[in-house]
Amino acid sequence: MIGTDTFEEMRRRVGEPVACWLEEIVPEEVTLLPSNAYSPRYAWMFAFEKRWKYRVEEALGRPLGALERLLLGADGAISETLSNAYVHGNRRNALLPISVTTVLGQHSLALRITDQGQGFDVARAIAGLERGSTYFHVAGNGLRALARSSAVTAGFEARGRAVALYVPLSGEPGQELDGAGSGPADR
Asked: How many CA atoms within 13 Å lie on the side-chain side of 9?
């Protein structure tokens, strides 16, 4: 779902962190994995996601389980947000960095993904999605997937240059994980 919380508000909801880290991803400089499941122009993203997943699982001492599908891969919240930062924000310039801040707690996590772009009119884009703009029939997977998810809350900052994600982990009382997907992604 799309909410109004900032990253700092989401970070406070996480509570005492188990782990925190900031990564600057320059797609051109990411060491690729031999078993890439994405198209070549998104191979950097596959490598980043795998490394991020293993880091989170190590910090938690348990696998992500059902949450992995909601966050990573086709229609995953993190994948779609990274893809939008790369395609729309950084205009597919593989030399521009994308910042990813992760704050991990026992029962939830907060992320902020920031690109180097100009930003966009967030309210206008959300209004277009809500009224069924034809753009969202052929594109807009990221925004559509975030809006449909009841397991992930997204908030936009810096005029859309940064997306904050709040994710209850399996095991947080009162939270059920659901599908966030809408269809095949451009990967």
From this structure: 11
